[in-house]
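Chain A, query sequence.
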Amino acid sequence: MPWRSSSTRERPRQCHVDRHLHILMSTTVDTMSRTKIEIGLSERLVRLTGGDAPCSLPEYEAIAKEIRASKKFPRALTQAKALSDENRLLAVALLHRRKELCACEIQAATGLNHATISHHMSILSEAGWVRGRRQGKWMYYALVDDAEFVLP
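Chain A, predicted structure.
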């Protein structure tokens, strides 16, 4: 029988700093292996473009850095994340077909509970995809008329 610890409680709990140190160390390992990755990437770029790949790698990195630094990037990321959940995407598709739905109708269609629907609709609302209106004790949702995906 392999050796086992008598209790998991005896292990010291991993602190917040240790978790970040682990991430930092894995990033360092990734950076060290980057040269090997860049060689393979350079070969593929040469085959695809016929150009001088080592010269174009810094260009692509600069473009990516510029995009990440743009003011539109956080908004685009929020919008994309809002649609990345299956249930939120389903809710948007339902609203696209029916124009406006009560929260209970979305709940019936998705099989989720009221609190979860409220949470998902809040995320979609913050991302600019849907708007809500209260009528008595009912909450109705619809797609934002001029909603468009923001690209940085």
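The CA atoms of residues 66 and 125 lie 28 Å apart. The first strand starts at residue 100 and ends at 102.
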